[in-house]
UniProtKB/TrEMBL annotation:
Subunit structure: Homodimer.
Stretch forming the signal peptide: none
Alphabetic keyword roster: Flavoprotein, Oxidoreductase
InterPro entries associated with the record: FAD/NAD-bd_sf, FAD/NAD-binding_dom, Ferredoxin-NADP_redctase_2
Keyword Oxidoreductase: yes
Keyword RNA-binding: no
PANTHER family noted in UniProt: THIOREDOXIN REDUCTASE 1-RELATED-RELATED
Name of this chain's protein: Thioredoxin reductase
Domain FAD/NAD(P)-binding: from-to ranges: 2-107
Species of the source: Caldalkalibacillus horti
Essential cofactor(s): FAD
Amino acid sequence: MYDVAIIGAGPAGASAAIFTAKAGKKTLVVDHDKGMTKKAWFENYYGITEISGPELVETGIKQFQRLGADLVEEEATEIKTNGDGTFTITTSENKQFDAKHVILSTGVALALAEQLGVITKPGTEPRIKTVLQVDEQGRTNIDGVWAAGTAAGVSVHAIITAGDGGKVAINVISELNGERYVDHDIYQPNS
Ligand SMILES: Cc1cc2nc3c(=O)[nH]c(=O)nc-3n(C[C@H](O)[C@H](O)[C@H](O)COP(=O)(O)OP(=O)(O)OC[C@H]3O[C@@H](n4cnc5c(N)ncnc54)[C@H](O)[C@@H]3O)c2cc1C
């Protein structure tokens, strides 16, 4: 049983996975490599002078794997709600994974969320017609299902979608822990 299953390994999903894995939550990421980020060239990502989309995505994946999250490179074809409040994710190769929480960070692809019954609404960003309805924490209308990044209707910029993924992950971790979570490491100049 995974604590958190994240669908999508673009900036939103990878950032969420970095936080949940680093917090010690058993984390699954499912991604079929069809995101928009690999098409981009970035000169507006804070702290990085310039970077290609492929390098940004590949570094994000390495980062969450290094922290212990599992990656399944397949399409998630179905998410089913179980009677006990958990979820079963089925992939294109018929693998099944159970999770307590799901974060949908699927970019512009909303079919999976719609099949699950997540409520959508019109998007506000250029070329983003429809997004998932979420509250300020990133919760959808289905208990235990959260959304982040482009799928959740935030400004379509990598640093914003990455930040949103981190924000939603912190909210999920806080709910799992039963208290507000913060992840701060301290710089030790002489170590
Ligand atoms: C040509 C172009 C140029 C851009 N230039 C810039 C720029 O200069 N600066 C900037 O800040 N932003 C730019 N952007 C926007 C930026 O790339 C996005 O805002 C941001 O990276 C989106 O991140 P995301 O994680 O929400 O979605 P995505 O990066 O699209 O990731 C979604 C992921 O979900 C996966 N997925 C979806 N459905 C499933 C499923 N059912 N099963 C498994 N996996 C699934 C996809 O494979 C994908 O990897 C550009 C975008 C484009 C297209």
